Amino acid sequence: MENTAAEARVTGAVRYRAEELGVVLITVEGTDANGYITVGDVANAAQEEDGEAG
User: Fold this and answer.
1) CB–CB of 23/46 below 8 Å?
2) pLDDT by residue for the chain (54 residues), tens digit each?
3) Are 3 and 26 in contact (CB under 8 A)?
4) Residue 36 DSSP one-character state
5) N or C: which end of the chain has fewer CB within 10 A?
6) Is 22 left (phi over 0), alpha (psi -120 to 50) or beta?
7) Residues 37, 26, 51: CA angle, nearest 5 degrees
8) Which distant-in-sequence residues (6+ apart) come within 8 Å of 31 by Cβ?
């Protein structure tokens, strides 16, 4: 799967942070009022992935 804006509603900052943390954006559910994925959503997804890996 790819991190593409066409498949996930994100801003540039969110896309950048997802790349830093290794989060695949299309696996993250956006919590913004308009359905956008926030930086917090990405951080939570990364934390959840770390918890599952350990």
Assistant:
1) yes
2) 454 544 568 999 999 999 999 999 999 999 999 989 999 999 999 999 888 765
3) yes
4) P
5) C
6) left
7) 85
8) 37, 38, 40, 41
First to last CA, the chain: 23
Interhelix angle for 12-21 vs 39-53, to 10°? 10
Write down the pTM of the prediction: 0.78
Structure tokens, 24? 């695949």
Contact 28, 40 (CB under 8 A): no
In the block, tokens 């930086």 appear at 39
Give yes or no for a contact between 25 and 3, defined as CB atoms under 8 angstroms apart: yes
